[in-house]
Amino acid sequence: MNNDNAYAVITGATSGIGLEFARLFAADAVNLVLVARGKAELEQVSKELREGFNIDVRILSLDLTVLANAETLHSYTKSEQLDVMYLINHAGSGDYGSFITTSWQKEQDMINLNVMALTYLSKVYAEQFAKLGRGHIVNVASTAAFQPGPLMAVYYATKSYVLHFTEAIATELHKKGVRVTALCPGPTASKFQEAAIMSGSKLVQGKKLPTAATVARYGYRAMKRGKVVAIHGAGNKFGAYAVRLLPRRTVRAIVHRAQSSR
Q: Does residue 85 sit in helix, strand or coil?
């Protein structure tokens, strides 16, 4: 990489996979535009990367559940005439529980963040990249994308959207020189489980999960290779493809049992 003028835009950049992507880009001398809600966390990460790698780091404290803030992000990079070559749509949220008992506000915010903001940012940066004949987009999906998810119904549905949307635009944009990747990790050691109130799920109880750094390194390599669907972990790859062979009702029952706390 080593392009002194190149920038990577990363949403959800202060924790988990997003933060680790930022560190990987910084190590490759790519400048950064980091986006998250927490200003203090952004300033801390920015200081680490500026001092550690001598790159330009811009920070924007924005809540991307509000679509106008996604528009603000794009307007900022355009007005600053930043040479954005990479977009990492990492920001996302989840919720755990029976659909009739979970919070509608959390689910509305989840749809706005996981679907609306991601789609808008993919569109405006893809248009920009296509005009230049180069660019990379990574949309962080999940192994949840491959099946319905009882007890996390809306989250699984949003990630299914991310996967299928990403595959579609990757096909459209390939001949224009733009590479688009859906990164599909399984459960990963991060703040996501706490935020989604998932401690009761058997998917994560007592299990040693891969680190965000491990998943990000895998995703970073997949991005550079132009891989369209990147599923982290052999077990996750097997599971993603196995569901194609099973009856739908069996898949639903397996996921429900795996998600259940008892």
A: strand
Position 23, amino acid: R
Strands 31-36 and 6-11: parallel
**Chain-centre distance of CA 16, in angstroms?**
10
How many Å apart are CA 214 and CA 189, to the nearest integer? 10
Q: Alpha carbon of 74 to those of 56, 125, 187: distances in Å? A: 18, 8, 30
Cα separation of 147 and 166, whole Å?
16
**pLDDT (tens digit per residue) in 65-118:** 999 999 999 999 999 999 999 999 999 999 999 999 999 999 999 999 999 999
The residues spanned by each domain of the chain are 6-259
Of the two residues 249 and 199, the one the predictor is more confident about is: 249
Q: Which CATH architecture has domain 6-259?
A: 3-Layer(aba) Sandwich (3.40)
* Per-residue pLDDT at 142: 97
- Higher per-residue confidence, 198 vs 43: 43
Q: What is the pLDDT of residues 149-198, one digit of tens each?
A: 999 999 999 999 999 999 999 999 999 999 999 999 999 886 655 554 55
Give phi and psi for 203, each to the nearest 5. -65, -30
Sheet holding 31-36, edge to edge: 57-61, 31-36, 6-11, 83-89, 135-140, 178-184, 229-231
CA angle 147, 149, 155 (to 5 degrees): 105
Question: Are 253 and 247 spatial neighbours (Cβ–Cβ below 8 Å)?
Answer: no
